[in-house]
Design goal:
Blueprint: E1 4-9, E2 13-18, E3 21-26, H1 29-41, E4 49-53, E5 56-60, E6 65-66, H2 78-92, H3 104-120, H4 126-136, E7 146-148, E8 157-160, E9 163-167, E10 174-176, H5 178-186, H6 193-200, H7 206-226, H8 237-244
Antiparallel strand pairs: 1-2, 2-3, 3-5, 4-5, 6-8, 7-10, 8-9
Helix pairs in contact: 2-6, 3-4, 3-7, 4-7, 5-7, 7-8
Length: about 240
């Protein structure tokens, strides 16, 4: 009998693996609705939906290995990273999904809240937060919404050799900023930004990608600590913030 592996678990959701089946348990059915519909609409490889019995969604494992994991060196080839960039371009050129995405006002309010809490709670030095926030401000510029994954971590992108085999975890998808997806994909792996941009094609404002690295770091630290993760580990959020600031 296959063992049950807890992939991730916190108060909002949990993901378990049993053999080649992933069981996602989510207390918010609308998130699961969005994930299933996003996978149906996305023009890139996604996991097969095996069955759904709320609050559980069963997905088949995708072939291959994760492009990278935060805090660890990537063993994927430059061509694999470029293939991921090309897949992101296909996603961004697809029609927008029919639900609302996050707007700039929501993001600005969240940034205000998190920066104040990081300083008042003594979680990060005030000077580091101020420098990181100054970098993150470049995110706030006019942009045209595209179909974004919303949480396109390198650990959510699977390849086999130089071929992309699947993109997982679509619960945060929706209309959004294209450069946010590129930033999340390369977060903590700056050395592969050029490969991703080469696969993505077109003009990419690297300064805004870097701004999103700072933004993601500032928004994530308190949540990660509260849910048992370590943003202070080498190569993780605080290191990325420090390097960019």
């Amino acid at each position: 009998m296959d063992e049950v592996e807890v992939v991730v678990a916190h108060s909002a959701r949990a993901t378990l693996r049993v053999g080649d089946v992933f069981l996602k348990v989510d207390g918010d059915p609308s998130r699961t609705d969005r994930e299933v519909e996003a996978m149906r609409l996305a023009p890139v490889p996604t996991p097969e939906v095996l069955w759904r019995r709320p609050p559980v969604l069963a997905l088949a494992a995708v072939r291959g290995t994760a492009l990278a994991r935060l805090g660890e060196p990537s063993t994927a080839s430059p061509a694999a990273w470029a293939a991921a960039g090309a897949a992101v371009r296909r996603l961004h050129e697809a029609p927008l999904p029919p639900w609302r995405g996050r707007d700039g006002e929501d993001l600005a309010a969240e940034l205000d809240k998190e920066c104040a809490a990081l300083v008042s709670g003594g979680m990060l030095p005030a000077a580091l937060v101020a420098r990181g926030r100054a970098v993150a401000e470049a995110v706030f510029r006019p942009w045209t919404p595209v179909f974004t994954h919303g949480d396109l971590q390198s650990a959510h992108v699977f390849t086999e050799g130089d071929t992309l085999t699947g993109v997982i975890d679509w619960s945060e998808s929706g209309p959004g900023d294209a450069l946010c997806d590129l930033a999340v994909l390369t977060f903590g792996h700056e050395e592969h930004l050029g490969d991703v941009v080469a696969g993505y094609g077109g003009d990419v404002d690297v300064a805004v990608v870097r701004a999103w690295w700072s933004m993601r770091s500032l928004l994530a630290v308190r949540w990660l600590v509260a849910h048992g993760f370590d943003p202070y580990a080498p190569g993780c959020e605080v290191d990325v913030l420090s390097a960019g600031a």
